[in-house]
Every structure is written in structure tokens, then in C-alpha cells.
Amino acid sequence: MSSMLRSAMERGSIHGIRIALIAPVVTHLLFADDSIIFVKANVREAGVVRDILRRYEDASGQSINLEKTTISFSKGTKAFRKVGVLGVLGVREVDVQGKYLGLPTVIGQSKKALTNIIRDKLSKKLQGWRVLLFSKAGKETLIKAVAEAMPTYVMSVFKIPTTFCDELRSMVSTFWWGSDNGRRKMPWVAWSKMCKPKCRGGLGYRDFANFNKALLGKQAWRLMTNDTCLMARVLKGKYFGDRSFVDAELGHNPSYTWRIIWEAREVVMRGARRRIGDGWSTSVWWDPWIPKTQSRRIISPRLENDEDMKVAHLLREDGLGWDRQKVSSLFLPFEQERVYSIRISATKPVDGWCWDYEKDGEYSVRSAYKLFVDDGSGIEQSDFARDKWLWSRIWKMPVLPRIKVFFWQLCHDNLATKANIAKRLAGHDMDCPFCYNNMETCLHIFRDCGWVEGFWEGLGLDVSVDGGGERVREWVESTLKEMREEHCVEFMVGYWALWERRNKFIFEGVRGDLNGVFNRVKGLLGEMRADDDRELNLGEGSGSKAKTGEGRVVEEQGEDGGKEGEKQGWMRPREGAVKINVDAGFMEGMGMGFGVVCRDEHGVVLKVVAVQREETWEVKMAEAYAVLTGVKEAIDAGYKQVIFESDCLEVVTDLRTRRKGRSDIHLLYEDILSSCNIFEAVNFSFVSRRFNRVAHLLAHVTPWSLGRRVWIDDLPQHISDVSSSDLVLYN
């Protein structure tokens, strides 16, 4: 049907809709069984559409449901035209199409149509959950898995009013803290704190307004990186013509769609950077192109008449590297270092955009939202490290989720003790309900009160809770640091049971004795240990291979059919192939080295190469460049069937899977893979560093000398010895 509509437009039978003179004509939008067709309101074009639909029915065997098909006319359409079109198509007229893909087709100044969709769905869910008894941990799961996910689709397309985001937050917060006869219970922790990551003392809930911005950033990113898509061509024709989206202005009386995408550009520019290809479309002074800096822009003083300088002007005449004399004369030392860390591709692609906060260089909502969270943290690095230890310790403990949430509240000193209630309700009783000698604070009831004396002895557990600190968090942290993990579990379960007993006494008048608490704690500990044993037995029976060491598999099937890993070592290639081992190394204050060793199926060394450069790149980039160096040497030697072997598993995996991306290293991957097209057969395999010693030695060969050195017959003695030992180990 799409093809027939397009052909009809090309013949002039239908005209579609165009929002600006240089914008593309749109005749239809199709998605699954939702379709919108745009034509002029006349009988002739209506007849063309009718004929196309009938031909589609005959060819596909599907039938158009006329009862669900509607038509709407633009303002000013004459009544007789409407009657004629309706008579031809046989469908009913509506003033405005209701929804398309679940969203309203027309958005005016009032956003009630949007907000009502979200409010109604979320309210129904929350009302249904309120009749059930959920623990705080259960509520956390429901909020994150359902309540926070429901507005995501709408938020990815439209900007939600801030007031409505606050309303959503209030609805979710009320569900979390609970309500009694329609009255919201007291919130003990500010929602802004609860939206922080768990490693920073929050619960990881979403801030709806910031999440909305991060989602809309994806639309802006699409315009920046794919200017050939329909949305980009339509908006470009209307709003920014021959300019780029980054340079576009809001304009006079913009549409709601353009306004929200234009505003989302600010979100993207907080982490976007120009990926340098040929350098001709990137401004030295105005564009963000410097990696690993806060602004990603040059801050060195500009020289006169240089405002229009492009990055290409900083390259050597051959365009394959940096002109160090120019760079050193223009930039501050730390900027020079960052410039030299950018590798220039020999294929000279056009410059593009990459996202600095993801490895693959592609914008992600997760990392963009994290930027908002980090900006609002306002904590020192040392405080973050200390807090991270405590919160990680609590959340990783093998205890029930409800116990973890209880300790989260305890560390924030926000349990509903009498002293805490009195801070909010003047005149409230603050006496400890057990000893009546002190105020009931968290520290008192769990550490200082006489009713907990002998509690751990009665349980027969070796736990000491005499940690210091005048704040609850300090006391919990010092106590957990002094305990082994099994004692930490006992500590957390025991205090949760004590709090449960205290609440029964306060609200139900059930005083009881410690024996009931002892039985409760022992029962919970026994159940958890039984669950751990069950999981251990299931794991042992699964037959899965264990993994060890920095994400590397101990044994891995090589591309050439052999097993490569810690046990096998270096293996000879298949008959007729050449195995090329590569490695990268760093010499502090001097630069990088790359080692290449080529061996045939008998293990005979055909060639060894050492290349040394004065730049210093990131480790992964250097390891990938070592592979490219090996590829160049193989091409130079005329090898046809090659196996490239590296001790960097991440690089090998990326090359095997031909992983796509927009980052600097993915540009290097493209260079490697395109260069490999010359070979008859090529494979990439991983080998342990222990059995990549020859390439490792070549990458660190001394004396240091910039450039390329090649040995074919007369190998250095220490290189020859290590190469021979590889064969001995193999045999």
C-alpha cells in the first residue's frame, strides 16, 4: 500500500501534505494496523485512495474495517467537498482524530488530553494495589516495575508539565508511605532523597521531570545524528533550512513538537562531542570536540582572525596526524594532551557526533538521566566514597528486601520512634515504652535501652553492638565494619525482629517476652540459610562453566577451532594460515608501543615488528590500534589467510561481532574491518596475556625509538628465546 500511495503521488494523482515549501510531501504514516493518509479534499483524490485500498485488499486478503475508519477535514473545507469525499470513501467524519499509536493526534495549549491518559491509568493501578498488604520492599518493586514505567511512552514524545510531574510524584509517594481513610500518612524522607541512587542513600526512584527531559533528549539526538529520517526532513524544511539542528533557532510561533525537541537539545549538548574524522565540519573554538574535559571545548585564548578555524587546519598536510607545532602554539598543555589522544582515521570520514557518557558513543536515556542526578548530588567525593560503602553493604546483604528497607530508614534516623514523631507533632509523648527513663530515639531503643541488654546472648550469637558514634548512621557503619558477613546478617535480622516486637507492643498492646523474638530471628535465619543451600545445590547441578578474572572466560573456543586460554597457551594456526599476535604497551613519559609477531602453521616466526608512537591513548584504544598495526603488516607481507590474536578480550569480542557505535574506538574498528576485506579468510581470537609474551615484549622493546622496526631473519635473542618457549609449552 505504501508503494502504491507513493507512486500515486509521483504521478500527481494525490498531493499529500507539506508544512513548508522546502519540506518533503507526506502522503501517509503507517504503523502495524494504524494508518493515516493525507490527500486533498476533493472527489478525484478520494477516488484514487479508494481504488488503492481496494487493490490492497485484493492483493493481501485483508479487509479495511470501515466502522473504525474515520476522516477529518482541515478548517475552511467547503461543505459540498466534505459531502463528496464522504460519499466516495463511505466512512464517517470526526472533528479531530482521537488517537494514533495510543497518543492524541492534536495537542493544543491545554495538555489535559495527555495528562489524563497517564493520571487515569496510574490512579487505577494504585487504587487496586492499596487494598493489598504490601511491605515497603513490595511497594518499591511495584513502583519501579509498573508505576514509573507507565508514563514512559508519553514522556518519550511529549514534554509533561512540571505541575503534573509533581502530581505523579505525590501519587506515588502517597502509595509508598501509605494512607489511612483517605488521609496520607507522614512521609519520613523527602522524595528528592529517595530519588537518589541506592549507593548514595536513596531508593533509586525516578524524578519524573528529569526523566522526561532525558527521554526527549533521544528525539534531539536523532535529529543530530540522522538528518535523513522523515522527522528530521520535515522539521528541517520548516524551521532550520540549510543550517544544522545544533545551530537552529526556536523561531516565531513554533509548534509544540518543535519547541520540546529544540529545548531537549540542551540536554544532549551536556554530553555530546564531535567525533573527528576529516575535521572540516568542526570549529576549533566553538564546537565541543575535546574528550575528557568538562566543557569539551577549547578554553585557550583565541588569536585574531582565527575564529573560523576548523580542526582540519590542525592536521598535517597528509591529514593523517596532528601538526604538533600548530597545536602547541595554540593550546594550553593539558589541552594539547587531550588533542593528541584523538586518533585520526586514514579513511578520513566526515565528522559526526558521539555521546561521551556511553562506551559505544550512542545517546542513552540512562546516562543522560544520571547526569541530572549527579548534578543535584552536591556531595564531596570523600563523602560519596564513605556513603557508598555503607549503602552497598546494606543493599548487598543476603537478607529479606523488607529488612534492607528497614535498615535504610534506620540509617536515615527516620523510623517512627516517639522522639521523631515529637519533632513533627509538638507535645507528643517521647518516653521509651520499655524503660521509661529516656527518650525513645533510634540509638536508644537499639543500643542503649536496657530491654536489648542480653538480647544477642539470649540468641547465642556472637554479635557486638557497642559501636561508637552519636548518629545512627555512624553507629551502624562502625558496627558493620567490625563484623563478618554472617554476623552482619544476624545483626540486621535481629534488629528488624526487635522493631517488629516494639510495634506490636505500641499498636496492639502485645508485650510478650524475648523468647518470641528469639524464635522469630532463628526461624528467619534458618529459612535464609536453607534458601542459600538450595541455590548452591542448583548451581552445582547446572553444569555451567565457571568464569574467572576480570570478565575473562578460562576456556574459550577460538575462531580457528582450537581452545585458547589459561591451560592451552599459544596454539599453531590451521594449515595455510598465518597467526599474528599483537599487543600494546605504555612507557611512562615517552608514549606507546605496539608489538606484532607473525608465525606460520609450524610456529616458525615469519616477521616481528615494533612500532612506537609519542601519543598516549586509552588502553582499549591502544589495544585496538595494535590489531590495526597487525592488519597493516599482514597486508604488507601479502598474507591471504590470517588469524589476529590479542589479549584484550573486549576488543576481540567487538571485532568478532562487528559491534556498531559512534565513539572514537568504533571509528578505529571500522578501519580494521574495512582493511580486512583484502584477505581471503580472517579471524580474531583471544589469548591469555601469559601466552602473548612475544608481542608483549615487542610492545615494550628498548631502546625506545619512535617509528617502525622490523626483524625478519635476525631476531633479537630475548625475542627468539620467548618465541621458542611458546612452542615448547605447546608441544
Plain-language structure description:
This protein is α+β, with helices and mostly antiparallel strands and 731 residues long. The chain has 4 domains: 2-102, no CATH class; 112-206, no CATH class; 382-537, no CATH class; 561-730, Nucleotidyltransferase, domain 5 (2-Layer Sandwich). The strands form 8 sheets. A 6-stranded mixed β-sheet has the order 19-18-15-16-17-20. The chain has a two-stranded antiparallel sheet with strand order 1-2. It has a two-stranded parallel sheet with strand order 3-4. Helix 4 (112-130) packs parallel to helix 7.
Quick summary:
The protein has 27 helices and 20 strands. With 731 residues, the chain is an alpha+beta fold. α4 (112-130) runs parallel beside α7 (162-177) and α23 (619-637) packs parallel to α25 (664-675).
Chain-wise SSE layout:
Blueprint: H1 2-11, E1 28-31, E2 34-37, H2 43-60, E3 70-71, H3 79-89, E4 92-93, E5 99-100, E6 103-104, H4 112-130, H5 136-147, H6 152-155, H7 162-177, E7 179-180, E8 183-184, H8 191-194, H9 208-225, H10 230-240, H11 256-269, E9 272-275, H12 324-330, H13 333-340, E10 352-355, H14 365-375, H15 381-395, H16 401-411, H17 418-424, H18 442-448, H19 455-459, H20 472-481, H21 485-508, H22 514-540, E11 547-548, E12 552-553, E13 555-557, E14 563-565, E15 578-587, E16 591-599, E17 605-613, H23 619-637, E18 641-646, H24 649-657, H25 664-675, E19 681-686, H26 693-699, E20 707-711, H27 717-730
